[in-house]
Amino acid sequence: MFIMWGFKVIFRSIGEGEFHCPGCGVDRRYSLRKARRWFTLFFIPVIPLKDVGSVIECSGCHRRFSEEVLSLPTANETADSIGFARRALAAHMVDVSDNTTVAREAAVEVMRESGMTYYSQSQLDIDRATSDWERVVSWARHLGSRISPAGSETMMMGAARVAAADGVFTDAERTKLVDLGSAFGLTPLHVEGILTAAQAAAKHANG
């Protein structure tokens, strides 16, 4: 009697969620699938052997990726990071500007223009209490690799407007903004252009 035997890897789903699919370029549902090798008899799996790893399978394109792909932020997570970063940036620049009235007013205006219509002076004080420069720079590095240069420029301009609200940059303000631009991945020339534009707008607004 002729016996047909062999081995086959079979995947089974053990979890699911949402991730940013590198293949589709957008957020998709995924399945976490564990692979196990089986001994087959007449092409039928009969004896489970060792596990051979897990993969993430996209529900859209059905491509498979290593589990490291889950470290990529989803669109919603990136949007949340942008919002938190904007608030932290404005709050920190208010502190660097010695918490002046014009800087506070500029911070609230910048936040409201970004879509946070609820933003207020009291919210600014809450953000100032939790703002940390190292955290701000970390967010800038994180977002600089995930949003467009135009997006980084917009965030930089908001921070620069707060710092330049009185019409000039102090050495401390300029140093912070230059470091921030570097964290976003912007060139020194690009950063200088943003600072010049923000300062000109502030002088015009102040008459």
Report what the structure shows.
The protein has helices at 75-96, 101-113, 121-130, 133-144, 149-163, 171-184, 188-205; strands at 5-20, 27-41, 44-58, 64-65. The protein has 207 residues and is an alpha+beta fold. β3 and β4 (64-65) form a beta hairpin. The N and C termini lie far apart (99 Å). The protein is built from seven helices and four strands; from the N terminus they run ββββααααααα. It has a four-stranded antiparallel beta sheet, with no helix packed on it. α4 packs parallel to α6.
Salient structural properties:
single chain, 207 residues
Overall pLDDT? 84
The 3D shape can be described as elongated
Radius of gyration: 25 Å
List unreliable stretches of 5+ residues: none
N-to-C order of helices and strands: EEEEHHHHHHH
Q: Based on DSSP secondary structure assignment, what is the total number of beta strands?
A: 4
Termini, distance in Å?
Answer: 99 Å
Tell me the structural class.
alpha+beta
User: Sheet with the most strands?
Assistant: 4 strands, antiparallel
In the sheet with the most strands, the strands line up as: 1-2-3-4
Beta strand %: 15-25%
Short description:
This protein is of the alpha+beta class. It contains seven helices and four strands. The chain has a four-stranded antiparallel beta sheet with strand order 1-2-3-4, with no helix packed on it.
